[in-house]
Structure to design on (160 residues):
């Protein structure tokens, strides 16, 4: 008779122990969750007043929110929740256009460059294409060819 009572008590204690919290010695892996547009200071620094919507879209990407009631405002939102962090990182950025579709001002967590900033060193590994300089007749000027890599120079020296 004591064996069934003892077994019932052991099962009840095991059930209660399963519901308790145990200090975590080894934490499980949690992935980083990223949503929205990745906006860096370098991207926003390329914005200048008077740029067209196409130029802004080329620099920043497609906006997360284009409100049909405020067609001259684009909202960019970025949210990153790192697996080991408790608080997510958020960025909000808005671009405002005039009735002609030209960039007037920006607002948000990431600051744009001043129009008179000329001390920004150009990066030779990046190519910027001014979308406003493309002729309307459809002919596009080709960018200068890149220098060939190591194997390209060897093949060129051989004559292939």
């Amino acid at each position: 008779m004591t064996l069934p009572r003892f077994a019932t008590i052991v099962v009840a204690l095991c059930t209660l122990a399963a519901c308790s919290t145990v200090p975590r010695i080894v934490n499980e892996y949690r992935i980083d969750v990223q949503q929205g547009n990745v906006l860096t200071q370098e991207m926003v620094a390329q914005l200048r007043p008077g740029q067209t919507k196409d130029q802004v879209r080329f620099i920043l990407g497609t906006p997360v929110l284009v409100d049909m009631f405020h067609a001259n405002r684009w909202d960019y939102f970025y949210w990153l929740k790192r697996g080991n962090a408790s608080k997510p990182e958020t960025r909000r950025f808005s671009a405002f256009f005039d009735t002609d579709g030209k960039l007037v001002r920006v607002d948000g967590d990431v600051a744009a460059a001043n129009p008179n900033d000329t001390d920004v060193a150009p990066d030779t590994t990046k190519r910027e294409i001014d979308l406003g300089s493309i002729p309307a007749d459809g002919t596009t000027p080709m960018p200068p060819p890149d220098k060939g890599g190591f194997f390209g120079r060897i093949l060129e020296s051989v004559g292939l």
Remarks:
- The helical segments are 2-19, 41-45, 53-60, 150-158.
